[in-house]
Amino acid sequence: MFDRKAQWIWDASDRKTYHHYLQARETFTVPQAQLANPITLQITACSYYMVTLNGKVIGHGPAKSAHGKRSVDTYDLRPFAQRGENELIITALTVGAGTMTAAYEDAGLIFQINVGKRIIVSDSKTQVRPDPTRKRPTSRRWIMPCVEDVDAAGLAKRSGWKNATVIDASAIQLYERRVPLPSREVLPVKRVVSCDAVKLPNVNVTFIVKPYLVDEKQRYRCNTYHTHAYLISEIHSPIDQTFELAPALGNFAWWINGKHMVDSNGWNTSAYGDKPIVVKLSKGKNLLVGISRHSHHEDACICGHADRPLTFKNPYGKGMFALILDEPDAKSITGKKQLTTEWAAMPGMIKGVKPAHGFTDGAIQPFAEGARVIKPLDADVNTATLDTLTLPAAKNGTASRTIVDLGVLHNGYLCFDSEAHDDGRLIFSMFEAIREDPQVMIHWPGINNALRYRVAKGRQSFESFFAYGVRYIAIHHTGSKPVTLKNLRVLTANCNMVAKGSLQTDNPIINAIYKQGVQSQLSGMDDSYTDCPTFEQVNWNYDNRTTALANYVTFSSDAITQNSIRLFSEDPHFQGMVRSQYPSDWENFIPLWSFHWIMWVRDYWWHSGDAAFAKQMMPCITRGLEHALSLRDERGLLSMPGVWHFVDWAQGRDDDHAVNAAEQGGLLGALEAAIQLGQVLGKTFGKQASQWQKQYDQLKASINEHLWCNERQAYADSLHADGSPSPVSSMVTNALLCLHGVADEKRSRMLAQRMTKGPEGGLLDYGSPLGVFYMLELYDQLEMIEPLFAIIAEHWGEMTLQGDTCGWEHFKKGRPANAYWPTRSRCHPCSAVALKYIIRWVLGVRQTAPGWKQFTVKPVDTGLPIHRVWGSVPSPEGLIRVSWGQNGDKIKQMNVISPKI
After folding, report:
1. Contact in structure between 401 and 440 (CB atoms under 8 Å)
2. CA atoms of 27 and 16, how far apart (whole Å)
């Protein structure tokens, strides 16, 4: 793959340094004759890279990899190369901490340029330096890497280059990239939504706390931690004044001068509510106390508005804050008692808090979320065109805010060319939705999708280091003179997926749902399926199994599907049941998700007919089932205390118990899938399948004995520690159990009919696509088609009527009663699963054998007004094309073209 002379390199810094951007430079010459011949780059890095040739961005990477492995990318350099000298610049980032989206490795970079027979490799002669445009510390982008803060003035710096340090990364296993490179499709601005003068928060402080609250190992993981700690800081105010907090992330209860301000958290900013949170500050010192008992995050932020600037100081040493540990069960010190406590005398005072771990202006999103609208400036952007947007100058300490719409929610790299006449800053906050009612309301429920670009005089070009989930962009400009943006755009990060299937009907809602499902997949995938582009970009196994069910009938993206599945099998740290998301440094475990991974392998085999891939996954499947079956209790039920018993986003569920009924059903589903695969693969796996069948039968009997409640004629959602059944019986859990054979057909139909009545049927309602999936699958299995499509028309129809281009994470009914917005994520590709049923029952194409070797075409009445349908479905051997028309109650004019007809 790499020539033996290619070496892993870095600079002389600690390879565990927190968020260190490195630039590497290599120059090489290309003769005129070589421009017509292959010129390639092979590259990978720990953790991320962006590469340019002669000032033009070539690409980003690497693709997701398991711990101890790295995917190697190969680029064709010919479109960017020039005759004579060429300059390759690589910007590489070591995160230096665990994230939710990648597998941590110590920093490193390796590359090789192939110019004909000549090879230029990374080695000690490669020039490296810290990136001069990315010097400022920033807060974490939720539980992803830190937000971007780029200073264009650094582009002019030519000095600072030194020879690279050769490092030993020989333990990392390299392999060729398994999926295509990102598509980089151009998404231009389609609409200018508004322009306003706004007042940005002038107080913005970040405290990095996690390194002091966890052990050494956990610093490089992304796990939740339960440390009782106090953060102490003095707020120095130059005058008596009021301080109004702006929404910011961080798991701390904040108190100022003994007054409780807010219980903030790191997942969203809903705790700040709609009412101002204000405190009176005295001239001089004011006491800030933050109390943390549970967190998943690296840092915490305090932001807001004050008449005069504030400074934050550690009262007991250097820097901005002190940290004090307390006993886990100790009662927290609150209220006015904080003002008289001798904090310095507490035994848990942490010595050596680094001054660099407290800094200002590093949390970018709170500037956007805390902006106060002063007056409209819409007339100032009337001259905007598709490729030119002039941002109004800021006046009297304010900023201009221009909101633009790309017309579609997507995942990609923010790009623009700028022309500025003075120094200023641009804050780009990217989000998913607005409501014009009639004022513009922005939906940003805890997202941290913002970056800052500090312009310099003259012209510059910019492309973000990371891909962002984005439809709308709020651009804040603080310069005293206008800035012109040219070619503001997003370059898509999905890996060259092209839709193959199609659907058109005479029902506009079905058409819109199909279109939305296709876009959800495009927008929610990069080198693997992901749960959402805006919040996490994570390969969750259940979410992505359901996405794949839609993908099979629309894109048939085998490379993406195989890579997404395979990554779980390569996890060296979870050798039994797979973790719920991977690659990731969050050692998170949702049992039901682990079982879905096994079912996902079976699904892919059924779609593709690829038994060889399934065979490669069987050792991991076998280990996972052995692990799960070893956890059965004396009743024969799976018992797993202390894990995340997640089933559905719905109010009123009772899942957090060692014996969870949905997890029993999930294990049955995994056994069903493994039995089916074992029978197909035969030999050793065939013998194992017989044993799995016995264990399936035993578990089924135990569920019916211990979880069926005769008086309510339903299965309890869990068993409590004393053995009593949960008072809750939900639609979701009962559907899952019926789906995987716990109930006979008579009981399954009885329960399914009760589900059609809603809560009046006596079962707790569902709350999200993740939960209702089991009901849709049960209705599909029982051929209860009208109730199935009633759910799709209601909830997926609402998504389209809201104007969203992608499907949601939640349904409105699953949200808290006071929730203003109907969902959190507006692009959760798992919701695309509705396309599976539309193809099966509306177009009427149903697969009946592995690999589409056999199929039927038989549309049915869905209860919706549909009279004409045209569409196609991808199969391994080509497209299956179908059209039909309805005359009265009968289908006529059926036409089918397929590779087999």
Report:
1. no
2. 28
Q: Which amino acid is at 453?
A: Y
Q: Do 829 and 860 lie in a common domain? A: yes
**In terms of residue numbers, what domain contains 543?**
502-895
DSSP-H helix ranges across 530-579: 541-551, 558-569
Contact present, 218 and 321 (Cβ < 8 Å): no
Tokens read off for 11: 């600079």
Cis ω before 429 (30° cut-off from 0): no
Question: How many CB atoms lie under 10 A from the CB of residue 500?
Answer: 16
449 and 471 part of one domain: yes
pLDDT tens figures, 463-505 = 999 999 999 999 999 999 999 999 999 999 999 889 999 999 9
β-sheet bridge partners, residue 69: 173
Report the relative pairing of strands 48-53 and 56-61 from DSSP bridges. antiparallel
Q: Please give the angle made by the CA atoms of 390, 393 and 396, to the nearest 5 degrees.
A: 165
Among the listed residues 102, 39, 95, the one whose alpha carbon sits nearest the alpha carbon of residue 71: 102
Separation between Cα atoms, residue 282 and residue 223, nearest integer Å: 39
What does the block give as tokens for 850? 């592995």
CB 528 within 8 A of CB 561: no
Cis peptide bond N-terminal to 438, omega within 30: yes
One domain for residues 643 and 792: yes
CB 231 within 8 A of CB 322: yes
Q: What share of the chain is helix, strand, coil (3-state, %, to 5)?
A: 25, 30, 40
Residues 486 and 512 in one domain: no
889 pLDDT above the threshold of 80: no
pTM of the model: 0.97
Structural domains of the chain, count: 4
The Cα–Cα gap between 826 and 807 comes to: 6
3-state secondary structure of 502: strand
At 142 the pLDDT is: 84
In a domain, 4, yes or no: no
Cα atoms in the 13 Å half-sphere on the side-chain side of 607 = 24
Kindly indicate the confidence band of residue 422, based on its pLDDT and cuts at 50, 70 and 90.
confident
Q: 901: pLDDT confidence band, cut at 50, 70 and 90? A: low
State the number of CA atoms in the 13 A half-sphere of 21 facing the CB.
22
Instruction: State whether 686 and 758 are in the same domain.
Output: yes
- Residue 772 parent element (H or E): helix 769-782
Whether 247 and 279 share a structural domain: yes
Asked if residue 241 and residue 332 are part of one domain, the reply reads: yes
Last residue of a domain, one of 359, 391, 423: 359
- Going by C-beta distance under 8 Å and a sequence separation of 6 or more, which residues neighbour residue 536? 100, 101, 142, 143, 144, 530
143 part of a folded domain:
no
Give 424's pLDDT tier (boundaries 50, 70, 90). Answer: confident
d(CA 594, CA 663): 10
| Cα distance between residue 150 and residue 148, in whole Å | 6
Instruction: Confirm whether 659 is domain-assigned.
Output: yes
For 584, half-sphere exposure in the C-beta direction (CA atoms, 13 angstrom radius) is 25
- Tokens coding 532: 């959402």
Confidence band of 100 (pLDDT split at 50, 70, 90): very high
CATH number (domain holding residue 249): 2.60.120.260
For the cut 90, the answer to whether the pLDDT of residue 814 exceeds it is no
Structural Rg of the chain based on CA atoms: 28
* Amino acid symbol at 687: K
Where is the domain boundary, 455, 490, 525? 490
In 262-409, which ranges are continuous DSSP H helix? 337-340, 365-369
**Which amino acid type is present at position 593?**
W
What is the C-alpha separation between 883 and 871, in angstroms, rounded? 6
Say if 495 falls within a structural domain. Answer: no
Question: CATH number of the domain that 591 lies in?
Answer: 1.50.10.10
Positions of E strands within 167-298:
173-176, 186-188, 191-199, 203-208, 229-237, 241-246, 253-256, 259-263, 278-281, 284-292
Does residue 337 sit in the same domain as residue 287? Answer: yes
3-state secondary structure of 696: helix
